[in-house]
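User: Hi! Is it possible to get a structure for several chains at once, not just one? Here's what I have:
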Amino acid sequence: MSKVTSKNQLQGKEIERDYLDEAVHGYNLRTAMEEAARCVLCYDAPCSKGCPSNTRPADFIRSIRFRNLKGAAAIIREANALGGCTAKVCPYDRMCEEACSRTGIDRPIQIGRLQAFAVAMEREYNMDVLKAPKADKEKVACIGSGPASLTVAQRLALGGYQVTIFEEFDKAGGVLTYGIIPPRLPQDVVDYDIKKIKDLGVEFVMNTKVGRDVTIEQLKEKGYKAFFIGTGLWKSKEVDVKGTELQGVTYAVDFLKKARSANGDWKIDGEVIVIGGGDVAMDCAATAKLLGAERVTIVYRRTIQEAPADIAELEYVQALGVSIFTKFKPQEIVGENGKVTGLIAEGTDDFSQLKLKANHIIFAIGQDAEDMNKIAPVELNPNGTIACDINKGFTNIDGIFAAGDIVNGGKTVNEAVAAGKAVAESIIKYLTKKEGVN
Amino acid sequence: MANKADLSIEYLGVKCENPFFLSSSPVGGCYDMVAKAYESGWGGVFFKTVGRFIADECSPRFDNNGKEQTPWIGFKNMEQISDKPLEDNLQAIHRLKRDYPDKIMVATIMGSTDEEWKELSELVTQAGADLIECNFSCPQMTSHAMGSDVGQSPELVRQYSRAVSSATKLPVIAKMTPNIGNMEVPAIAAIEGGAKGVSAINTIKSITNINLEHMTAMPVVNGKSSISGYSGAAVKPIGLRFIAQMKQHPLLKDVQLSGIGGIETWRDALEYILVGSHNLQVTTAVMQYGYRIVEDMASGLAYYMEEHGFQKVEDMVGLALPNIIPAEELDRNFKVIVKIDHEKCIGCGRCYVSCFDAAHQAINWDFEKRRPSVNDECVGCHLCLNVCPVPDCIEPGEIQYKDESKRIPKDIAFQTRYE
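Assistant: Yes, the chains can be modeled jointly so their relative placement is included. Here is the combined structure:
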């Protein structure tokens, strides 16, 4: 595959145009020091307050600034089980960087890139920041291996609990491995964060869907005392548009998972239309473009300003040559011989009309929960997510906890980490109390 | 670079097209280098020190230290005097003066005995130099009969100045080492020996960095290193101080000085002029950026002169000296309280941290609004102005007199700005 680079309009960052290459180059020591030196080293720093998972950006930037790179790496690893991943995928413009005081002078510190640099140093130095005590406490099962589950597992392992993660697919990481695209989140970054969790003694059981391949009752018999549900949202939202049965119509989750599983070895021909305006839609568009699609078009029913996608993601797909039609909603998918040939969309102004040729149409309009009652008879919200206190993670069933997208309906990796940290505390309190009663 | 004002100045009776010279160093050690420097706009060159001694150099020989994103704040150099045969250097000096008659050639020399100094003095005079500089100050010579060990001895400085002056009709300049408490002492000795001018400072003996793996200084030369000369922006404050102190001494006030030490911009150059330099020498900035930097020195200085109505560089020499006074003579009857502009403030809290941890706990911090405010403890030290990252956010404000009865009936020039 040929590698073409182009200048992004934003901050002159070079963009790699290859599905398996990271879009933005990382810092080296010198450029990291330059960026850290731009930091005004705030008192009571707003960036740290702006981080849901409390990854302490002000502290790790100060460590970099004072040439304590190992210290910076340790701060991140202690604070955030997915420090490597969140460094790549956090929507900084809504979190730490939005809060950055430097914005009052010119532009925020590139906190995510500094975090990625510190985690890269952790790898380079072969650091083992965390040491788990002997796992002699209760057995806990984590269902799903996405951000929330991985975080809970790390916290519990550090507390001396015996943790097992049960994962439906053959690779761990959930949305990190099967959702987000490699240019934004290279697989080795995911694998490294997961390895750090495995090194703490967490057991991973793959290709095992709880509720289908094994039940909670069976796990209880094996001695598991608490259960954490962090399955995420993997069922595509139903679409009520004529023509969805045609060959070539697909859903974001399936499309991204297929691309990721093929490891880039998948050629996409012709014209691609992506429906949606979130990061997942941007990821689908970028994937289609990087895998060879001639033309990729995003059709979104609201305005760019209203689109939930990060500005960086919008700029990234535009730098790749993807065009975006706003204020159009799909009216009909047309086809011939059972295959898609195009999309007809109508403007939300009740006037505009759009008729676009297409070989592939990808719906990226959000995901729903699968039936959680197949796992346990927990109380559900009307939309299928698990009803529980987001900050504590207690479900209505004793000993069963939940967090992440399956509770909040689909938010960021950082927020899943934040919830995972909080719920791990709940689980520890629960098990400690239970032990006291016994 | 439109400004072509007249920057000419006489130094020791020699008319120079501008005061910007290369100092005796790696930047001016052969015909081709000096020719290029002349053509780039330098008014003259102090040719790399020549002598009977021929240097055998180590590799590597440089190091630099920085702070935050700025490397080269200071620079360490282990090179000694010229590593070329004396005859080659004399020939280069001769050809350069022949080919560039309007440019100034200063021959910098270094000997180890009276006879050697005299011989060098005669040879460079014959080669066509305009001026002679005696290098009494290189801190990294492998011979202790030469370099800064000589410069620290007023007797040797006087003796060798006399030897050199006796063997030439050219004005002689003595180059001082800063590795000494009072530079006035050897400077006076040089004048007593017959020198007409003094240049300062040569480099400062230094260890820039310790290599944490090899347990030696930088640069590492096969596992070892040595103390050697430090230069660059970091030494400018030290150079300015030595020049000012010499120029304020009654026995040296009429001696024309050549200022050296950390000059990179026209502002640095002007600062050296304002504390009493008639001539300026540059090396480190040229090592980092090349000869071309003289363009902005000349242009920037010309713009300043135009703005302030100065006709000649000479008219600016020493203008800051009357205002640099002993600490005991400063007016201490007032304090300038600071004022903080909450519109410009970005809420970083750096002033609060520094005031509490390093000054007088005179700033309160509003955690809700993320804004500092000055309380009654302010002593007017202005540490906060120095740390604030926003221009003009914290400024000098109300003047409070300690004793109203001793109030001097004139305005206090308090408008210090930190750029």
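The two ends of chain A are 62 Å apart (CA to CA). Residues 139-233+369-437 of chain A form a domain with the FAD/NAD(P)-binding domain fold (CATH 3.50.50.60).

User: Great, thank you!
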